[in-house]
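4.2 Preliminary Data

To establish feasibility before requesting continued support, the project team ran the inverse folding procedure on a target of 202 residues. The structure was first converted into the token representation described in Section 3, and no sequence information of any kind was made available to the design step. The complete token record follows.
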């Protein structure tokens, strides 16, 4: 199992990067929180990784902190949640929000994450309520997170992807909506503004 990868950032887009390690390019799938911690292309990057083995492929998932990886693994242990949905959940809420939401049984907060319905939210609480308390939050909470990486913006991008946009288009539209409406705009207003931006050819 590959537990960590360090090398040169050769390509990046929301949800996916390529890390060049001595001439070999490793593709990693990442949550938005990790994406916003990345350096510019060509910079050095070091990520905690999870190796997912399928019958037809081996996939790598990368995380900027051990807390993210630990929570990803817990999410993946829940029935019906695969690695892609686990990554999407981490994109929709930062670790320091997601852990208490699960521990406290906050179904409303969990259902606000794109791709998480009531049944999935209930399974998260039932199966992880006690386990999730073992995920340390101190380091994750101490990391500075850019304003554009907050949960609301991540949810907007996920919603746009679910509507058929590419992640790159969704990110551009979400950032344009945030710039137009300001940092206090809520999810619904951001989505409407982002859709308006896309319809205008942005």
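Position-by-position output of the design step:
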């Amino acid at each position: 199992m590959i537990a960590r990868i360090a090398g040169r950032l050769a390509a990046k887009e929301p949800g996916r990067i390529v890390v060049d390690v001595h001439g070999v390019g490793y593709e990693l799938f990442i949550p938005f929180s990790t994406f916003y911690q990345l350096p510019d292309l060509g910079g050095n990057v070091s990520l905690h990784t999870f190796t997912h083995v399928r019958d037809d492929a081996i996939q790598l998932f990368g995380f900027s902190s051990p807390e993210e990886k630990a929570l990803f693994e817990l999410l993946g242990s829940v029935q019906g949640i695969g690695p892609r949905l686990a990554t999407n959940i981490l994109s929709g809420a930062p670790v320091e929000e997601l852990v208490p939401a699960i521990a406290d049984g906050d179904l409303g907060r969990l259902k606000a994450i794109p791709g998480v319905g009531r049944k999935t939210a209930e399974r998260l609480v039932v199966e992880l309520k006690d386990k999730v308390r073992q995920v340390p939050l101190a380091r994750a909470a101490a990391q500075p997170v850019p304003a554009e990486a907050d949960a609301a913006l991540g949810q907007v991008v996920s919603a746009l992807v679910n509507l058929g946009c590419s992640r790159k288009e969704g990110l551009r539209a979400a950032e344009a909506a945030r710039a137009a409406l300001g940092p206090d705009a809520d999810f619904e207003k951001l989505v409407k503004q982002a859709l308006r931006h896309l319809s205008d050819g942005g």
